[in-house]
Amino acid sequence: MSQVEKNPQAVWEALQAGNERFVTHREERPNQDSTRRVALRTGQSPRAVVLSCSDSRVPVELVFDVGLGDLFVIRTAGQIIDQAVLGSLEFAIEALDVDLVVVMGHESCGAVKATAAALEGDAIPSGFQRVLVEKVAPSILEARSQGMSGIVDYERQNVTETVNQLMTRVPQLRERLNDGRIGAVGLRYRLSDGCAETVVTYGVE
Ligand SMILES: [Zn+2]
């Protein structure tokens, strides 16, 4: 992927092609040898930043069939956002000059399930886990306000809301989207078939 031309649409298409290879078991496993590893020791130039759920069933580099130095990956349960996430994202946009911001939720997300259950009256997790539910809850409430009630809809809405939050809170992302220097996509990875389905796109198609 590092060889593709620097533009959002090309990077988005390269990721889609990688996911297609993953889904159809035609992986090329690029950029995973020692030559690549050594070549990267003086710096990195990933073309996309990915904010995904920490879930062990969502291995980002495998899902997109990429290798060393290809993706700048940020992971939190439920792909929730805090200041460390925003700082990491800003770094990827400003210092690494990535072409694409990807937010990836997934099928059967425990954070979404726990939040939906808490909103139905189940106990809210204690300790630091409480923040996971607090940060996912607005997505589910928004989905409900739009008449949605299924867990798949909640998972998609949590992706949409996360992309919206990033665009609202990260001025560098907004500016670059406005002048076409960056794209942003929200995806929902399906455990069942390996497809990273598109939920929302900005600046790419
Ligand atoms: Zn999850």
UniProtKB/TrEMBL annotation:
Cofactor notes: Binds 1 zinc ion per subunit.
Binding of Zn(2+), residues: 53, 55, 106, 109
CDD domains, per database record: beta_CA_cladeC
GO molecular function: carbonate dehydratase activity; zinc ion binding
Top class in the EC scheme: lyase
Record's catalysed reaction(s): hydrogencarbonate + H(+) = CO2 + H2O
Family membership: Belongs to the beta-class carbonic anhydrase family.
Example of a GO biological process term: carbon utilization
This enzyme's EC code(s): 4.2.1.1
Lineage: Bacteria, Bacillati, Actinomycetota, Actinomycetes, Mycobacteriales
Pfam families in UniProt: Pro_CA (PF00484)
Cofactor field: Zn(2+)
Described purpose of this protein according to its UniProt entry: Catalyzes the reversible hydration of carbon dioxide to form bicarbonate.
Protein name (database record): Carbonic anhydrase
This protein's UniProt keywords: Lyase, Metal-binding, Zinc
